[in-house]
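User: Run a structure prediction on this.
Assistant: Running it now.
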Amino acid sequence: MTDIESLKGFYDRYPEEFAAWRDVIDVVETTAAEFGFREIDTPAVERRELYEIKSGEELMDQTYSFEDRGGRQVTLTPEQTPTRARLVQQRKDLKTPIKWYDTSKRWRYENVQKGRDREFFQTDVDVFGIESVEADAEVIAVAATIYERLGVADRVEFLINDRTLLDALLEAEGIDGTDEVMKVIDDKEKLAREEFLTELRNTGVAHESAERIDELTSIRGPITEEIDRLRELAPDDEDALEAVDRMADLADALESYGVAEACKLDLSIVRGLAYYTGLVFEAFDSEGELRALFGGGRYDDLVGLFGSQDVPAVGFAFGYSTTRELLKKEGEWPAEELTTDVYVAAVSGDVREEALGFASDLRGAGLVVETDLADRGLGGQFEYADSINAETVLIVGQRDLDDGVVTVRDMDSGDERRVPIEDVVDELA
């Protein structure tokens, strides 16, 4: 038979490797849960029209879409935000704030490169029904706490902007059609200054205004420090000043969460024009060695496209592939190895029933326990216990049982001790 390999951009992860992935996913999910976000479960396949309503043409070109046997045009989930919008619309009885998280696979036919795959895990964390800087600050705080717990907080910074603020600043400069200008601003990092100014002028922006936009979008620094500079440069316009005040309130809220030091104000951050309406942010490797880790923001207009309710929303999608690269660089990627608390070894078949009883009791105490399934001798059982990184081997033999004890071996040191049968669970748990 011909060997069949997995598709490009799709990965097989054997237990040793996935143990590390599971450790990282657990940190992300536990952090979200501790902030009061509740786990949901959603379909892997949706009607294609769900994504056509708001997703850009580029995303639709990347989807895995097909016609099912019922003649429906369906799509493997490339992102979860439209699904969540649909869920919120279907349940008018949900109490706000609605705080959800979910980890699942997504699919996009992209060019495979480091940190970008065609099948990938994401964890989405969102707040629905609340339009406030407190909700904005909380989702950023969740993200910052995740990286703190992963041990790389000093390598991650959050670049923050507010599309409402940028809109107000541009309109105060007398610029109409701000979407075209924002597309140029979104590319600013890739352009030399003269190229940036030329691109702005190509959209119809006057030279003086282009210079002013360049100055404003060059604001980048610690959010609590840059607010004052922003006030100085902002035009004397009611909408612009109101947007500046909101950014100041966000900075105060981030300080209250203890994460303001990781946050920088950056007026050149725009993100997807098809989705975001206010706050936008991206997590970056502070040393610039990796592409953006992930991003998020406020998308207050999206939910209303899927039903009668207008529901404000803010959140982010945590990407694992690029974060994995960062953790590996910093030596913080978990060990790719199996872990087992106890292996219960039966000296002979005569005591197998007793060995299984010990295993059952230890599992009841929350331990990961394995026993012999291959009728191995004692030496073979020790070899297998070593291969699964068992911390302890519980040796069950008839002579020990007659004495009311069992033998416990520490696999690191090789030390053995005899433990009374009634104390085994307490000692090992």
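The first strand starts at residue 38 and ends at 39.
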